[in-house]
Amino acid sequence: MHRKRWITGLVVLPFLIYLIYAGGVAFASMIAVAAVLALWEYFRIASNSQDDNFRKIVTPIGYLTAILMVAASYKFSAEMIIVVLGANIIISGLVFLFFFNSTPQMIESFRIQIQGVAYIPLSLSILVLIRNGSDGISWIFFLLIIIFAGDISAFYFGTYFGRHKLSPSVSPGKTVEGSIGGFIANIAVGAVFKFLLFPHVSWGYCFFFFILIGVAGQVGDLFESALKRMSGVKDSGIILPGHGGILDRIDALLFATPVMYFFIIFAQSAR
């Protein structure tokens, strides 16, 4: 498993680095594909094999919404992302009323679709906003490195030193020691980037945000684990050998990205 994780990472990494540097349509297209694939995995986990006609309609609407949200972010319009998100709620609500037949599956499918669109493409769209903004390449690399460093550190700290369960009802394999190891990596990597990228921001605020990003990442990881546990699923998919699915790989990123976006706004205002 460890070998598969590293091989997959080393194969994917050059393409990821290239697309981040390329930016523009190439980066936005990668984000759109990731959003649709992760949303498909989420629907597969959360829908629990429901087969109502309403779900068959609102699920494709969710995919289209994900693509439109990324397109809106590509035009550097945070406002349009919210407009698209709101339009999805309205349109899905109208479809819900059209198919309304008092069955429990309908309202559950409506909840799953709305939650999924807010959970996945919303955060991924913010990545495009960050990339297209000032010093976008540096900020994207900073976010990915701090999250991946925390994830890898938590995995290996937990594997070799883990003794106390962090949240056994959600993810029996995660430990307090692993969580602490992740925070150490978050702060260490963050401190390096603080020195290189934003020396004008005080160390106190930076450490606060590094810890906040680490907390958000670990909460995102546990949140996806809870979704899978409720549905009896081990991995969200099989597209990434050794890692599982797209959602398994970006679960921490989905929660950490909005935090990073606020940090960028703060750091830029402090100049």
Describe the structure.
Helices cover 80% and strands 3% of the residues. With 271 residues, it is mainly alpha-helical. It folds into two domains: 1-133, no CATH class; 135-271, no CATH class. A two-stranded antiparallel ribbon has the order 1-2. Helix 7 (136-161) crosses helix 9 (203-231).
Biggest sheet features: 2 strands, antiparallel
How helical, in percent, are the residues?
over 70%
As residue ranges, the low-confidence spans are: none
Q: Count the domains.
A: 2
Mean pLDDT: 85
- Gyration radius (Cα, Å) is 19 Å
- Order of helix and strand elements from N to C terminus: HHHHHHHEEHHH
Q: What is the terminal-to-terminal distance?
A: 45 Å
List descriptors.
271 residues, mainly alpha, 2 domains, two-stranded antiparallel ribbon, 3% strand
